[in-house]
Write a structure and sequence with these properties.
The chain is an alpha+beta fold. It has helices at about 5-25, 35-45, 45-65, 145-210, 215-250, 275-285, 285-305, 350-415, 420-455; strands at about 30, 70-80, 85-90, 120-125, 130-140, 260, 315-325, 330-340. The strands form three sheets. The chain has a four-stranded antiparallel β-sheet with strand order 2-5-7-8, with no helix packed on it.
């Protein structure tokens, strides 16, 4: 069997799968809805990834603070080799203050210093020595320092969760603004196309009327200038779509070379909540407000810890030690336990400085919390008023569009009767297009204003 021939279908299949995967990847971002955009942004946005990593760091701080509540156990061992051992010389009999055999107590024998037979050389120690120790230390009482540090770390983790929630809320608003920015830019292109088609038609009619003497050269020139203007507006509208899409893809962390479009509409949502109710919701639901309150609690815990730094603490300890050498018949074992108290006497006024620093930090957190609440209230008020303004403009633009449409009907009848010129009819038609553009802008501003109000209060408005 030819192995090359056998593998040929596999190569073809692999190549086709590769081409298919590229095709699927290229079409993945072809047309995006608002929900699709939010999911992609939450998955790919770098600011969210950074906030998640900060939350992981806060979790490790909790683990570190919790570890101080548990006992500390350590073990160490060593092996020592002595090439030379310390030696000493003593007398064979009576050298230690004891009588020689046959003598009474108190009768000491007199040794002859020149008699080397009466001297004994002893070695103290061993060549090979092994030693191992296991130590255990458990804090018993430290005026709540360890527990308060742990509680502060737990509160810090909760504050990190609120920071991540705030990052998601900010990203949601950013996606809303970018998504509807692309959507309205695409709508403007369609309006610009309609304007070009309309002016081209009117320009052709004006030239036809001029050829039969029903209009003047001035109206022809005016129509020609108007056609050039609307074509320029179409070019600008298309460029704005490209810019809006690039900004949108940057937020979603999509490669700029991807060709995308958005699919959506300007849905007008209503809310019956009053301003005071919205402010009250923001003060309880806004992640930044929650985070500032939690930071105050952390500052209070840190101040409590700082005030106990110069107080004594109590701990339990236990040690187990083994040792062995070639001179021992069995291993030595020593076990001990006890209580240890540490009493700070003088630390160079470090504890006093630490208390002052913690008090200052807590005061900064309190001031920052007040500033955040004031900023949140201002944001809710401004978002609410902007939403009311956009709602009023939508109502006004509805009437304006209706009036412009009625004007077109009248202008068409007048043009057919020869009462007005083609240029005047074109002005009426362009006025209708402008009214529709203004209504579209009002709808866009309302949708974005509604999203900003939701972000300002920290929750979705049902």
């Amino acid at each position: 069997m030819n192995p090359i021939r056998f593998r040929h279908p596999i190569w073809v299949g692999t190549f086709l799968l590769f081409i298919l995967s590229i095709s699927i990847q290229a079409q993945e971002y072809k047309e995006l809805t608002l929900d699709d955009s939010l999911q992609i942004a939450e998955k790919n946005n770098l600011s969210i990834r950074s906030a998640e990593q900060k939350l992981i760091g806060a979790k490790t701080q909790v683990d570190l603070a919790r570890s101080a509540l548990f006992p500390r156990i350590s073990a160490n061992g060593n092996y020592t080799y002595f090439k030379d051992i310390q030696k000493s010389v003593i007398q064979a009999e009576g050298g230690f203050g004891f009588p020689t055999p046959g003598q009474e107590m108190g009768q000491m024998s007199t040794s002859d210093p020149d008699n080397e037979a009466e001297l004994i050389e002893l070695e103290f120690g061993a060549h090979h020595n092994i030693q191992g120790t296991v130590n255990l230390t458990q804090p018993l009482f430290a005026w709540g320092r360890i527990y308060n540090n742990y509680k502060a770390a737990r509160i810090g983790y909760t504050a990190g969760e609120e920071e991540l929630t705030a990052a998601y809320d900010n990203l949601r608003l950013t996606v809303y603004e970018a998504f509807y920015g692309v959507l309205i830019a695409q709508e403007f292109v369609e309006v610009a196309k309609q304007s070009v088609e309309l002016v081209e038609l009117q320009f052709a009619q004006t030239e036809s009327s001029f050829s039969v003497g029903r209009t003047t050269q001035f109206e022809v020139l005016r129509a020609k200038v108007q056609l050039a203007n609307v074509k320029s507006q179409l070019i600008q509208a298309r460029n704005r779509v490209k810019t809006a899409k690039d900004s949108f893809k940057t937020i979603l962390n999509i490669p700029l070379k991807e060709d995308i479009s958005v699919n959506g509409s300007f849905q007008i949502q209503q809310t019956e909540k009053k301003l005071d109710e919205l402010i009250s919701i923001a003060m309880t639901q806004r992640p930044e407000v929650k985070q500032s309150n939690l930071n105050e609690q952390i500052g209070q815990k840190q101040l409590t810890v700082a005030k106990t730094q110069n107080l004594p603490d109590l701990a339990f300890f236990s040690n187990y030690q083994i040792s062995h050498s070639e001179r021992l018949t069995e291993m030595n074992r020593i076990w001990s336990l006890g209580l240890q108290i540490n009493v700070p006497i003088f630390d160079g006024f470090a504890s006093r400085a630490g208390v002052k620093k913690s008090e200052s930090t807590l005061k900064q957190m309190e001031l920052s919390s007040k500033q955040i609440k004031s900023s949140v209230e201002f944001e809710v008020r401004s978002s609410y008023l902007a939403l009311l303004e956009a709602k009023t403009l939508i109502d006004v633009q509805k009437e304006t569009v209706a009036q412009a449409e009625a004007s077109i009907s009248i202008a068409n009848l007048q043009f057919q009767s020869g009462i007005i010129t083609a240029v005047e009819l074109m002005d009426a038609q362009l006025a209708l297009l402008q009214a529709r553009v203004n209504r579209l802008m009002a709808q866009h501003d309302y949708v974005i204003g509604f999203a900003r109000l939701e972000k300002a209060i920290g929750q979705r408005i049902q």
